[in-house]
Amino acid sequence: MPSQPTTLLQGTLDLLILKSLATGELHGLGISRRIQQITGGTFVVKPGSLFPALHRMEEEGWTSSFWGDSENNRRAKYYRLTKAGRKQLETESKRWGRISLAIAQALETS
Hints:
Elements: H1 12-21, E1 26-27, H2 28-38, H3 47-60, E2 63-69, E3 75-81, H4 83-108
Antiparallel strand pairs: 1-3, 2-3
């Protein structure tokens, strides 16, 4: 039986969006699908969370966007990482690496 999707922890959505865009530009639904794919289905990002985050990340300068045609010939807004976004991905990855290691250590402590 597959596990249920998990609620994202504070701060993880940015990291997952940045990571999903690291290999190239995607539209919103593509980002959501990519996050689900790279997390093995653990995280499912709904539009109500995704699009405000994408808007904020564009304001931060971490992403840029443009309009194009999707695979089913509909207009879609595509997002790509900027240089600042790649740096933020590196920063966030290191930060979450430290956090996950600390939590793993805490869980191993009896």
